[in-house]
Specification:
The protein is of the alpha+beta class. It has 3 helices and 6 strands; from the N terminus they run E-H-H-E-E-E-E-H-E. Helices cover 28% and strands 36% of the residues.
């Protein structure tokens, strides 16, 4: 079963992100270890962190025209900070992985991960 784990972050987290890279090392190490384990088990299909949402462009349909606008979706206080695409045996396994990430208390770790089955 394919699942997408969507990392939700507060927009303000990006606006005030001044964390020293050395302070982030514990979190980087945790994420790299997790990704290596998922890759070795054959469960990891893709994963990435996303750039600062202030660099995003949102394309909207306005009166039949596709209009690009700088920045994330305007009405949102939360933004997508990253994702994993997994091929796991069950929803429970996808939830277990998400809980592992949210349960890690390092700097920059997400407080919320949305788990959604990918439809094929």
């Amino acid at each position: 079963m394919k699942y997408m784990l969507l990392v939700h972050s507060a927009l303000s987290d990006f606006e005030t992100r001044d964390t020293d890279p050395a302070d982030m090392q514990e979190t980087f190490d945790f994420m790299m270890k997790l990704n290596t384990e998922l890759q070795e088990s054959g469960e990891l299909l893709d994963a990435a962190g996303l750039s600062d949402p202030r660099q995003a462009v949102t394309v909207r349909n306005q009166g039949g025209a596709a209009v690009p606008t700088d920045g994330p979706y305007a009405e949102s206080k939360e933004v997508l900070g990253g994702y994993w695409v997994l091929d796991v045996a069950s929803k429970e396994r996808a939830l277990e992985i998400a809980q592992r990430v949210v349960g890690f208390d390092g700097p920059g770790c997400p407080d919320a991960i949305e788990v959604r089955e990918a439809m094929s």
